[in-house]
Amino acid sequence: MALSESDLQYFDAICQELLQATDNEKRYAADKALSEFCKRPEVFANVHLLLERTLFCRLVKVSWFNFDSDGEMQFQVAVKRVIELNEGSMESCSIAVELLRSLVLEMGQLDQSCLVGRQLKVAASFRDIYLLDIYKVSIGLLKSVAENVISFNVEDTDQRSLLVGVLALSLACLSFEFASSRGTDERDESIVVLIPSSWRDVFFSFDVIKLYHTIYMHIPVVEELALNCLVQVASIRRTLFDCKKRTEMLLEMMESVIEMLSSNRVPSAPETSHHFCLLLCRLKNTHQLSEFTGASCFDKFVDKTADFSVKSFMTVDFPPGGLHYLLAYWDLMISCLAYFRDGKNKQALEKAASIITRAFIESRLERVDVLQENAVRELNDFTLLWDQMDQFSTFCRYHYASSAEWLLQSFDQLVGAYNMSFTQQSESVQTSIVESKLVWTLYMIGSAISGRSHSVASSGNDSKDGEMICRVLQLIRVTGSTQSQRRFSNIMEMAYLWFLHQFRKTYLSDNSANSTDVCEQISRSLGLPEGNSVLSVVLDKVLHNLKTFVGHEDLILHSIELLKGMSMGYKASKTLLSLPQMQYVVANHSLDQFLALSRDGDLKTLKLRTALYETLVSMVCYVSDEELSDRLKQFLRPLTVAIDGLYDVISVNDSSLFFQEGSKKAVTALARDLRGVFASLSTKQAYGTAFELIYPRCFQVFLRACEVSDYPFIPSGMFNPFDCQLWYMDSSVVSPILRFCIEIGTNRSQRVQYSLSVPTGYLLARDFSKLITVYGSRLLPTTGIPQEHIYNIRYKGMMLCFAMLRSIFTGNCINFGVFSLYGDSSIDDALRMFFEMALDIGREQFLVYPKLAKTYHDFLEALVQDYVVFVTNLKPDVLVYVLQTLLDGVNSPNTDIVIPACATVDKVVSHMYQRYYGVGGEAISVTSGLMENDNSLKVIREKPQVLQEVVTKQWKVPFVVRQIPFKILSSLLNAVLFDECRCHYSMSRPILGLILLLEDYYSRLKLQLIVSLPPSQQNFVSELMDELTKLPRNLYAANKDECVYGIQAIFVPANSLDSLQMCPPFASSLSSSQRRLPFLRT
Q: What distance in Å separates the CA atoms of residue 428 and residue 434, rounded to the nearest whole number?
């Protein structure tokens, strides 16, 4: 039994995932999938076909610019010969089609572990030379099928397989990455196919649209592939054709759609329906509405697509992706109507919008009757649901009076049934059905109200909005007052919050226009007093949620977001604070007020306390400067009381009370609350007031928490971190404390930049140092932690410590030289602990955890800017380790790591150069106040065998330390000369210092580079590289910039060489990025 084409594609995909994935979990899953796949008996008899095909395509790609002894590019010639194979027998044609399809896919893929710039160059060359010819081959074969479509034998396996391969080849050509400009986060419906201008005539000379359409209509077994090709044709960039040709293509595509929908070939299968809806969406995204209305078949096109939409809405198993594209299509069509002046066509679209709106509303309610209890699953997919509602809000406002009236009738009937259902003691299926229908109605009412911003406002529509808002607010008040008598419904509460979000944005925000009449209508209907009574109804619901829904993270999160939205802006905050409910909350924000956020709740819910306090404090701070201090002191009084209580516990001789679970939860809650408080303080006055209230007792409590265990005494030899829970090994305790320290140490808006008489920055630095030192000294000796817990227990806390240090080193509010000058070792102790943590982590773990590596390199960059002497004073083995991690950072595929690593290399190398060619021996650094030693010079000028001995003793492997700067220079030159790196400037910046420091090595490197180039380019590149050595022998910024410009001049010709070849790997001890070219060997 032979493997199918889909099986071969699956095999190829999991093999690539296994070889290229950097995530261990993905590699493990791919390995498991491959093992299961290989258990099939037919695998080894057929998989060699894929291996041979893959090997051929990979060789062609890698050797694309290689010359043979006769000066010909044989691998390019091979492609031409494969193209000629399609003119032979059916067997040779099938082989040619499969090879060409695999080759097109291979050329369009980018392997991030290899030279990206060279891959793009190969892909561009392949596109310009052969891709159009390959596409013509597929079109020619499809044309022969279309001309004899009646006699095509679907039962013939060979014919069917060949047709599938030809359509797949055609689709691969149209899906080729013609220009590397598509964003990774671009939505599928907005993708544009950037086909080159040389392809323009193909679409008319071969009548491509008719070709795909004919195959779709007559050969159902390949309808999905044919439809996919039509989707790509519909996505071709507008500028490829002139106005006349573009109109002709649009008309042909519209007629094709009409014929599909008028025949028995209406898309019905889930995948086909999905791609047909995508076709409609891409077609509208590519063309303007005026171009659609100019077509003679526009009315029929709108009617047919509207009928198809109505039937699709009513289909229970219609694919969710297809529904998304269908709603997006109508969203795009209707959104332009406000600016459209064609009366006849405008009426046609408005009529279609009304039909679509009514059908969508009915379908959502009817599908609940069909799905019954399973309807709740759709309503729990909030991301998809809210996306649909956003699209629905655009076209539901046309013929709004009838749509709103129908929504109101449905709502009233469902509310009556909903209230009746709760008179029963037991839950029934009918209760679930009524509830689901009511939830859908609430979502659609909220969506209809938010659509006011998309349409022209009118008093009639606003009155309908007011009527619907009144009904929903009444329901919210009734269900809130009878909450204890009803069963809890998560989907109902989420629907309430969705509605209130839309209501707030449309009628209660500072930007709401003409909203007074609606608010007055609501107040009269609900019998509310004058003033901001409507806003108080929304606030009551938010506060009710925070007090009631314990353990429901999503509800609490969206309630806090609603409160934050209500308080955005000076006017909104002032209005909200004038309400009695809000004034009471600000004055009494204790744990008893918000039971849903109680410290006894689960960890996920407890995290939301930070967001709540950030929102509350931001409102409190919207007052005059004269009132700010008093307001903050009053607001923070409950938190200062909590700090004093914990401080009293740790101050007594018997501190066993502090080891209790209640104290742990109190410390965690306090850290989260204070982090939220300081996150919203952006002025010196507000920050200073809050800091004075919590310092120093708050830090003393947190310091104690990072050094204690649940048991005051652990017998010698009985230590087991999983038998006695240590606080400093509990990330739920340590992480909030460290994150609070990061926040309070961040000098946002210069809030920590006080006058010379205020030592806030120095106090923070000293306490940060104590905290990091104590935490590290407890954490580092622990052993036996399972690998699956190592990140949460060790690396996460270390990463936050790195971020803490960076916050004070980048704040520009402290003169660190003062510490050394007056004998205070706080900063040096913290930095020593930082390097101990880095050594404990190990280079391999930095590669496994990119987030950890980024934080490490970010702090190193901040450290060396003004405190580089501390780094160069490190012991030789530690300094070697730091340089090795910098080498790993330079070679990282993550630009967020590369940029700080290069900046650190630049600073360290510049300092080493100044020391190497400057004063020897010990010297005092004026900027840091440190006594500088000769450790950094040893890395440059000591004998290799002596340095090798040092490293051998540390890592038990032979190594020449002097190779590290060589490798860094090699890696940087490799990247900036032969790869289109996205951080070219950052990687070029340290090169001048490395050239001046390693002149002999640079000379050898240059010779190896020149020899590897074609003779016609050698003199030119040699002159450019010589220019770099003629620059002034200094490392001023202007001189480094000149070096960057010089490297850019070399980069252009080096990358334009067609003869540049990929060379075999060497030196297995080097990383993959260092094995790229042989002249970069060290």
A: 10
- Please state, as a whole number, how many other Cβ atoms lie within 10 Å of the Cβ of residue 1082: 19
- Percent above pLDDT 70 for the chain: 83
Identify whether the C-beta of residue 673 lies closer than 8 Å to the C-beta of residue 615.
no
Tell me if 226 is assigned to some domain: yes
Q: Are 722 and 714 in contact (CB under 8 A)?
A: no
SS3 for 448-505 is HHHHHHHCCCCHHHHHHHHHHHHHHHHHHHHHHHCHHHCCCCHHHHHHHHHHHHHHHH
Same domain for 163 and 28, yes or no, is yes
Q: Which of 482, 385, 495 is nearest to 446 (CA)?
A: 495
Nearest Cα residue to 330 out of 266, 424, 394, 408: 394
Torsion-angle region of 149 (φ positive above 0: left; ψ -120 to 50: alpha; else: beta): alpha
Query: How many whole angstroms separate alpha carbon 23 and alpha carbon 10?
Result: 19
DSSP-assigned states of every residue in 656-690 = GGGGSHHHHHHHHHHHHHHHHHHHT--SHHHHHHH
| 186-203 confidence digits (pLDDT tens) | 567 788 899 999 999 999
Residue 127 in domain: yes
H-only helix segments in 533-680:
533-548, 553-566, 570-577, 580-587, 603-606, 609-620, 625-651, 661-679
8 Å CB contact between 203 and 249: yes
3-state secondary structure of 726: strand
- Give yes or no: residues 172 and 195 share one domain: no
Between strands 923-924 and 931-932, the pairing is: antiparallel
Q: How many Å from the N-terminal Cα to the C-terminal Cα in the chain?
A: 52
Q: Which H or E run contains 278?
A: helix 270-286
User: Are 13 and 161 within one domain?
Assistant: yes
The tens digit of pLDDT for each residue in 1049-1058 reads 776 554 544 3
How many Å separate Cα 416 from the centre of its chain?
44
Residue 396 has a CB neighbour count (10 Å cut-off) of: 30
Question: What is the domain range of residue 155?
Answer: 1-181
What tens digit of pLDDT does each residue of 816-857 get?
Answer: 888 888 888 999 999 999 999 999 999 999 999 999 999 999
Average pLDDT over residues 320-334: 92
Amino acid identity at 756:
L
Bridge partners (DSSP) listed for residue 236: 193
The residue with greater pLDDT, 301 or 875, is 301
In this predicted structure, what is the pLDDT of residue 337? 79
> Which DSSP helix (H) or strand (E) runs through 923?
strand 923-924
The dihedral over CA atoms of 720, 721, 727, 732, expressed in degrees to the nearest 10, equals -160
Length of the chain: 1082
Q: In the prediction, which pLDDT does 233 show?
A: 95
Q: Which pLDDT score, from 0 to 100, does residue 208 have?
A: 94
Mean pLDDT of 415-422: 83
Whether residue 889 lies inside any domain: the answer is no
Asked if 167 and 175 touch (Cβ cutoff 8 Å), the reply is no
Band of pLDDT at residue 978, cut at 50, 70 and 90 = low
* Distance, CA of 935 to CA of 613 (rounded, Å): 49
The answer on 204 and 75 residing in a single domain is no
Could you report the per-residue pLDDT of 995-1009, keeping only the tens digit for each? 888 888 888 888 887
- Closest CA relative to residue 720, chosen from 707, 710, 732, 706: 710
Question: Does 728 map to a domain?
Answer: yes
User: CB of 452 within 8 A of CB of 465?
Assistant: yes
In angstroms, the CA 481 to CA 357 distance is 34
pLDDT higher at 232 or 981: 232
